[in-house]
Structure formats: structure tokens, C-alpha cells
Design brief:
Two copies of one chain form a homodimer. With 248 residues, chain A is of the alpha+beta class. The first copy, chain A, is 34% helix and 20% strand. In chain A, the strands form three sheets. In chain A, strands 1-8-3-6 form a four-stranded antiparallel beta sheet. Chain A has a four-stranded antiparallel beta sheet with strand order 2-7-4-5. A three-stranded antiparallel beta sheet of chain A has the order 9-11-10. In chain A, a hairpin with a 5-residue loop joins strand 4 and strand 5. In chain A, helix 4 packs across helix 7 and helix 5 crosses helix 6. The first copy, chain A, is globular, with a radius of gyration of 19 Å. Chain A binds a DNA duplex (30 and 30 nucleotides) through helix 6.
Amino acid sequence: MYLESATRQADLRDAPPAQAPSLEGLFGRLPLETVDSGAALFWEGDPATHVFAVVEGVLRIFKILSDGRRVITGFIYPGELVGISLKDRYLYSAEAVVPARLRRIARGRFQDEVNRAPDLRPQLFARLCDEMAAAQDQMVLLARKSAEERVASFLLLGLRRRTGGAVLPATIEMPMTRLDIADYLGLTIETVSRTMTKLATRGVIAAKGRHAIAIRKAALLARLAGDDDGDEDAAMEPAYTRAAVWPH
Amino acid sequence: MYLESATRQADLRDAPPAQAPSLEGLFGRLPLETVDSGAALFWEGDPATHVFAVVEGVLRIFKILSDGRRVITGFIYPGELVGISLKDRYLYSAEAVVPARLRRIARGRFQDEVNRAPDLRPQLFARLCDEMAAAQDQMVLLARKSAEERVASFLLLGLRRRTGGAVLPATIEMPMTRLDIADYLGLTIETVSRTMTKLATRGVIAAKGRHAIAIRKAALLARLAGDDDGDEDAAMEPAYTRAAVWPH
DNA sequence: CGCTCTCTTGAGCCACGTCAAAGGGTGTGG
DNA sequence: CCACACCCTTTGACGTGGCTCAAGAGAGCG
């Protein structure tokens, strides 16, 4: 019960809002703050004073190299937390991509509350787990995927967030700019633009204004993303050659 | 006390071996297993049955894309744990880079023990924290750094692991092959080789056989790594423009 | 001593970055 | 309500860092 699978957050969503203890519950009575588009919540290196819960809008978390190169390590959506850095200083900067609403709780209090309610601990672990898994997938993307695979992977992520695979064509919202996407995918703005144009030309996607995209061929998109054979429905169990030593 | 800074593991090292409860203590009486060079501990997707503590040797943890591209997401050294995946299946594969010695504990028992001894929880959090921080640094490296910066960063990591900055020239051990390094840095084996040759030509490093390297100019190496201005000793506090909105 | 595997080095190419300019949206002020 | 202005995005032409292909040099091992 303590380290449990966290792939789906069903236990958070399905539970009655204020009764079953949840991490979100800790923020319930705190004031709702507004953050302007582009405004910073905190900077990398700042003392980690608060934990934030996003209620509405999207955040970007990023690091900057000394010469200005920026890497967006993730986007934060409503229902997610930021600032559980576990260190005494924030590991990254956080800004609002669009006007956002959020609640903040002092870090010490957050820690106390989690200690007080043992049910919250597995949830916290689960969040960290998801974050770690996402970070590893991102490392794979950045280390070895082509521009097209990166963009396809990104679109697929957006698709998975909206409705667990609804009817096509599904439209996904993309509040961030091309520059944000580029800095998230380790590409340039031009390459992102060109790649999307190419996908649109091939009928895989269709632009719906600047910040929305219709996915027309999800299966093809999954194949283009390259992490799997595109044949993801087949159980992945039998494919493994257990006990074999990898040809090294 | 619960979410504490984990940058240094002093509390683990300084503590008397078996008295102060430590995560390593959980493995103390378990048999020491031997893993051949290149042998796998487990594969990505396997049911996550055990947690491993490395006693000697080095492991590589990695993911593989369907067409064979490999990404090494990290190397595991003595004193570190593997398999705390928090999911019911391993997120990555793990192999021994060189013949290794380790202990294993059933995952359920590991969880029980950690639950029983509350002192262990902060340690576990701290490990995850370090892992997350390392993952983010790696994302920065993979997304935006040049080949030279990547190799310099890698060498610097090795340097930081050995003796917290001893006398130069310090020699760092590199048990992994060039292919491992390449798959860790998102480069090819040829580029790694060329870059190291160039660094050696410039007198920054000097090869000591195939699996050891002497660092001759650590400060220059730090500058070449590119994450900071090379002026890392200066306090980082004053440089920040707090409350300013990033030019977006 | 010869075999094999790793690493180095070279030559050429290509995906993506860079530089530049021309479209659209969107918001603001008249 | 229109028009200007700014910014984001797209598109094009060109350059280049790192990849690919290929061959040779060490190093470890039986």
C-alpha cells in the first residue's frame, strides 16, 4: 500500500472532493492566487519556501544555462503540484505559460500535514514516481529521437492528457508558444514549425488556430513517435527474452 | 526534518555502520551476490520484485527504443540503490558494467522495513531527490549542450564523485566503454572519442590507459562544461533579479 | 603470437541550426 | 470599427556540428 502504482490518478479524481484525504485537500481552504501570463512563481536557486497547486492554466518549469540557453523540463497542468523539490532550494524556475490560478502552502506546513496524514505519503511517492518516469522518457527523447519523433511524442503526450483516447479527430490544446515547445524538445522554433507543417501536409494533424491541433491519424502519430513499434495494444509481456544477457 | 537537503550523503557515511538506521542497513545480513560483467539484473517492464544495493562495481540503467537505439539514463555506483521504481514494473533495464557485487531485498519487505523505521523515510526521499536533480541536469545536457560540453560535464561528474576536489591532477576511473558513454551523453562513440582526443591535445585531460583519465585543468573543464560561468565559487545569491518577470 | 574487440582517425554527408524575410493574429489606440 | 503595430509563426536559403561509413591502431586474452 505504501509504494503503489501511480500510473493513473483515479483515486484522486474519483474520491469525493473534501472527504478522502488527498494532497489537493491540503490546499482546499487556502486563497486562490492569480499569476499573469509570463510571470514567475520562483526562480531556480531561490529558497524553497512554498509548494504550489495549479488550479487553472499551465506552468513551465525550466533551467537556464549561463549563456541564455533555456531548457524546459516540464509543463505543469491543473491538478499537479510544483515545488516539492525536496531540497532547500528550488531546482528550477517556474513561470505561467498563460494566466494561471493556484494555491500555495508553506513548505514546512506541507511537510507537517503529510506527516500527520499517513495516507498522503503514498500519493506523494506516486507523484514523484510519475515525475521520474516522465523525466526518463524525456531523456530518451532528447538523447536519441529525431525532430519528427520528438514532435510526434509531444503531440501524443497532449493527446493522452485529454480524454483517455476519445473519438478522432481529437483536438488538443497547446497554450504554449513554439519557442516553449522548442525549448522543451531540444529543438529550434524553426524546426518545430517545419516539422508540424510536414505532419499537417501528410494529414497526420491539422492546425486549429495557433494553440490547438487536431489529431487526424493517432495510430500513425504513435508510430512516428518511435518509442514502440506502434503496435502498443499487444501485451508487452511475451516479447521479452528474460534471463538473456543483452548483446554487449 | 522530513524533506531535507540531500546534496551530501554525509549522514549516511559518517554514521556508525550498523547502529544508526540507514537504508543500507536493511541489506546488511542479506547474502552478497555476484553479477558478471554485462549481465542483467532485470529488464524494463519486468515485475519490480526486488530492490538492489550495489556494494562493488558499477551498473548501467538504460532504456531501448524499438529499433535498438539505447539510452543510458544513469550509472549506479557502490552505496547506491536500484529498483526503487515505485511502480509495479521496472522503468528501465539494469546491467553490470563490470563484475559487480550487490545485495537484494524483496520489494515488499523493503517497503515494510521503511514503514517500520520512520527514520529511513527522509533518506529515501533524499535519494529520490538526488535522482530527480540528476535527471534534470541530464535533460539540460541532452537538450542544449554541445558534444564538448557533454563530455566535459561527464568528466566533471566523475571528478566530483572521487574525493571532493582533491589535488590535481586527479585521476578518475571510467569502467564503462566509449559506447556506454556515448549512449549516456546522446552522442556516437566516434564523437566521444574525437572530443576526448581534443581535450587531451589541449592538455585539459590525459588518458591513463583505457579506463582512467587524469584531469589536468579542472577549472577549465568546468568552464567547458557550460552549466555555469566557471565562476562557481561566488555565491549565487546576489545574481538573481528577484520578482522580475522573465523577458518572455 | 594471433585473434578479437575496443578505440581512434579520416572523409563525406545530412539533419538540424542559423540567418533572413515575409506572412498572419491579436490587441490597442484613434 | 478600423488601422496600425507588435509579436508569433512560417518559409526559404545556407552553413555546420555531429553522424555515417570505413579503415587502421592498440589492448587484452587464450
